[in-house]
Amino acid sequence: MSGTVRLFVNDDLGEGQSVPLSRDHAHYLFGVMRLTAGDRILLFNGRDGEVSARVVEAGKRGGTLLVEAVTKPLQMPPDLWLLFAPIKKARTDFIVEKAAEMGAARICPVATEFTNSERIRQDRLQAHAVEAAEQCGGTWVPEVAGLEKLDRVLDDWPADRQLMFCDEALVGEAASSSALTGGLGRGGDAPWAILIGPEGGFSDRERQRLRGFDFAHRVSLGPRILRADTAAVAALTLWQMQLGDWT
Amino acid sequence: MSGTVRLFVNDDLGEGQSVPLSRDHAHYLFGVMRLTAGDRILLFNGRDGEVSARVVEAGKRGGTLLVEAVTKPLQMPPDLWLLFAPIKKARTDFIVEKAAEMGAARICPVATEFTNSERIRQDRLQAHAVEAAEQCGGTWVPEVAGLEKLDRVLDDWPADRQLMFCDEALVGEAASSSALTGGLGRGGDAPWAILIGPEGGFSDRERQRLRGFDFAHRVSLGPRILRADTAAVAALTLWQMQLGDWT
């Protein structure tokens, strides 16, 4: 990790641009991190890449930065959605953080028949995604969608998007990560999604429905049962290695 | 996850064997889980596989189980060590939990030049590994070793053990997961270890030393900087897919 502070902002970040700071950002930069006028930080907005900026004014309730130069081009993640069934708060936070670090483009909480948690705090999860992108050197922040029923998401499934479906009924069976590359070749720019089931697994009806789709590809995540948060990171790794930007 | 309670015990688990319960286990089974005489649970001890057992006596401070039948054979993980530099408490706990879930055989906290945390609670981490094995349906619990200096671990490195070394200096370079399979072929029963650096990265001296070893193989975990806990799960996935028991 870099020692330089990185912040996600909504402002445009052209060279020479002046960036006003929100109260929260001013508190963080000048109160917590003790920066003063002349100090350098890094900014990104999800559109213009990463830029370096100098502190011009440092106040308790606000301040101004001046954009100096582009330090990193915009790097978009692959067109990959992560669908997961929310679990306990800390583990849901963790899944969102990891999805942002590992390069998912969109994070979609879905309610399944066995999902325990019927509510999410979308704004808090979005803030977690921002923080993860700030920490991991990303130039882009995935959007956290609102909670939707899995059945409805599948009703409206986009025709060209493939779905990697982590089927815990495959635990103990011969693994099938080859399913991904088998008939499909490299992903390239093809749109994909990963679906991680709830702690209690999918219902038989859900599993049957998923297995019936041409766009759905079952994979195994090894011979042990993984918790949902572990499964999310493992599935993102598997996908990124075989079809994404780790290859 | 199974609805049946699974417990790790130290006792032998032959058919017909009587298993006395510790005070903690009795409290958990009869106080927390509300089991009574005649109820069935699952036990494993890391030697005999998984067995089903019946509650014979249920007391507040103890009790007895009777082993009925083997339900799962002993499944050893591959001979894989996970070496990592301890970080903040919650993330260190997480790494141990995930290593146990994902099938590491031994978990070795190592102190590097930039490691923040110079102490670990080995007994607490071992308890996390046990709990993870109970949850994930494992029949084996990895040992959590005491904290050792990385330099000393490398001084005494076993001649035949390969080391996958996640070098964050490779972030942005072309990835090299092929390094693992390139000259090496499938891992089979070969002993391996994975090394995850601290949040601050390895020192230049450490990195140079690691690069100098024939047994050390550098891999990239993609174009973004991963937190140490994310890197641990991603590295375990990569290894298990290419050389371990997910293949």
From TrEMBL, chains A, B:
Main location: cytoplasm
Keywords tagged on the record: Cytoplasm, Methyltransferase, rRNA processing, S-adenosyl-L-methionine, Transferase
An MF annotation (GO) of this entry: rRNA (uridine-N3-)-methyltransferase activity
Catalytic activity: uridine(1498) in 16S rRNA + S-adenosyl-L-methionine = N(3)-methyluridine(1498) in 16S rRNA + S-adenosyl-L-homocysteine + H(+)
E.C. numbers: 2.1.1.193
Entry keyword rRNA processing: yes
Domain annotation Ribosomal RNA small subunit methyltransferase E methyltransferase: ranges: 78-240
Cellular component annotations (GO), alphabetically ordered: cytoplasm
Class of enzymatic activity (EC top level): transferase
BP-aspect Gene Ontology terms: rRNA base methylation
Compartment(s) of residence: Cytoplasm
Residues in Ribosomal RNA small subunit methyltransferase E PUA-like domain copies: 23-65
Role: Specifically methylates the N3 position of the uracil ring of uridine 1498 (m3U1498) in 16S rRNA. Acts on the fully assembled 30S ribosomal subunit.
Family: Belongs to the RNA methyltransferase RsmE family.
This protein's name: Ribosomal RNA small subunit methyltransferase E
Organism field: Marinibacterium profundimaris
Upper classification of the organism: Bacteria, Pseudomonadati, Pseudomonadota, Alphaproteobacteria, Rhodobacterales
